[in-house]
Design a protein that fits this description.
Blueprint (H helix, E strand, L loop, with lengths): L1 H11 L17 H18 L1 H20 L3 H31 L5 H36 L4
Helix pairs in contact: 2-3, 3-4, 3-5, 4-5
Length: about 150
Amino acid sequence: MSRMTNWIDALTATAKINPDEYSLKVSPNRFKSLGYAVAGWLFMLRWQKNTRLQAVATIAVMGFAVWLQIDLISLALLVLTITIVWMAEFLNAAVEACVNLSTSEYHPMAKVGKDVASAAVLLSVVAAVVIGGLLLLPPLLQKIGWA
């Protein structure tokens, strides 16, 4: 029974941690929480050049999709795919900020953390290009009369 208890304790240990005991600031106000999220997005647009490129690409792809008059399911898949790329970029920036906060010296594991987070962005972008092609190429070929 001791082994089972240890296993259950290991599974539930994280859930027992009260974040209020370790956080400098926890907002009980949902509007303030929304404000923090918007502030994070504005930070990304100001300081992360890739995010500005993503904003332009997002507008261009969505405009192209509307021009092609793709169906609602394809549009929803496109929105989901674009959102995943944005989320990967945001999480990459968060990992980089945490690593930079933890050390100002070169450390191989800091490099691993940053490189792996960056790889997640690359993976999401490659998937987005493939999905975008699958969703947008057939309607484009029809629109220009090649299909």
